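Hi F.,

I've been meaning to write this up properly since the lab meeting, where we talked about keeping a consistent format for the predictions we share between groups. The idea is simple: the sequence comes first, exactly as it goes in, then the structure tokens exactly as they come out, then a line or two of notes. No screenshots and no reformatting. I'm using this chain as the first example so we have something concrete to point to.
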Amino acid sequence: MKRKQIRKKRIFLLTVGCLGLALFFSVKKGRPVRAQEVSYALSAAQEKEESNKIHNHVFIGTVDVSGMTAEEARGAVQAYVNQLSGDKVTLVNKDTGEKLTLTAGDFGLSWKDPDMVEYAVELGKRGNAVSRYKAIKDLNASGEHLPLSLSVDSEEIAGTLQEKCASFVSPAVNFGLKRVGSSFEITEGRAGYEIDEKKAEEAIRTALTKNWAGGDDTEIPLSVVKEEPKGNRESLEQVKDVLGTFTTSYATSGAARCKNIANGCRLINGATIYPGEEFSTLKAISPFTEANGYELAGSYLNGTVVESFGGGICQVSTTLYNACLKSELEIKQRQNHSMIVNYVKPSMDAAIAESSGKDFRFVNNTDAPIYIEGSTVGKSITFTIYGCEKRDPNREVSYESETLQTIDPVGVQVTMDATKPAGFARVTQSAHTGYKAQLWKVVKENGQQVSREVINHSSYMPAKKILTVGTAGANPASLEQLKAAVATGDEATITQTAGALASAPQTPEQTPLAAAQAAVVAANAQAQAAVQSGDPNAIAAAQAAQAQAAAALAAAQAGTQ
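Output, unedited:
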């Protein structure tokens, strides 16, 4: 009750104060007090300070938010922005005049400043009684139009330009060459077009955020960059001379490797490279997938031969490398294989690998275009590079491989394979000798050597022979005998011991006595093989195995008594 009386007293005092101020200002201006002004004063005095509604005559953009709470005002303005998002926006290709109709929402149109609602709620409620009275009077007289700020999203713009404006974009097609028989045909080039994304974003942002009122008649001109095709008939007509050619054989390759080589050759054949332009072999022939025409075949990985899609593809890059050497093109990237290959001499190879980024790259350092012709005939691959020959006809270039060091592989690497039956023993990878080598470029003029320089160094790791032995079905004793043989590192001992397992009982259900007897048989076979090898270490290991087997047999026999 007391609180209610205090509240009434407060409202009364505010009313009296406001009436007094109204009379004061009116008298000061020399005019009588109007009834309307008294009404305004009473209204201001009775305004609840805790009111959360927006005064009348307040707009955010074109949205009337009078009498709304903050939440209601946000909803009203957002609904209007959503409506704007559906309005049509037409992009116009400045170069061709082509038009593409989208919506403002495709560019991520949104309300930039939702906090404007809080400002609207506070209108007429800030400051002392005098300032509030004046603010309310101004609102009723002329209203308040607050800005509606819009924004667009850079990522949405970029995505829309890429996904929906494909008709504005076309790649340039360079003038090219096609080998027909023993001559060339020139293929026409075509200009390309691409959107200037930076300028396009600026144009879209300006159109949709600077005083845009919506509607379906908005057109935004886009700048399109024209890319002229490389080359012309005059430059391509110079291509008629063989600059260099090279052939390698893959006569011993299986069907899958043969197909991979032919496929890689096909992907390079017909390439036209202009002066100063770089060619990446890896880019031209990858990815190494079934979809791109490749099959599983052997390739090098960490000192072993594994099956991978595109196995054998390095013979393609190697053949091209040597054709480029003969053409004296500028080599930008070349790496040797991890192990030696058999189709070129040391230091004359060029490995590529998608996983590690190994690539063979070169630059056309001539002043005319060059053309690469690739072919596979009778399990041989050939690359021939055509261009405009300007080198002295009396100048001769050759390349010499020099082996600096030979590194023999030591020992044998044994793989125990549980998927192969006991008794299986086979060499699954031959040994590879390691080398250190370098390649010399030798230049002669009129038959006389005028220069000799090293152009690359190569290091090939040695790799042990890999012997795979089966263990499937072997009983524990026999398996121990096999492990003992493997420990000798002697291929003959390992093979003999593995072979003996094939004739010995190996069923897992063997009794301890039968297992011990089988172990004795295997140990005796190991001993015989060791004696034949003459290796003291193998003989010692076999004798130890015999002693172990004899002890196990004695224990098994005692257990049956």
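Notes:
Residues 465-560 form one domain.
The two ends are 111 Å apart (CA to CA).

If this format works for you, I'll send the rest the same way.

G.
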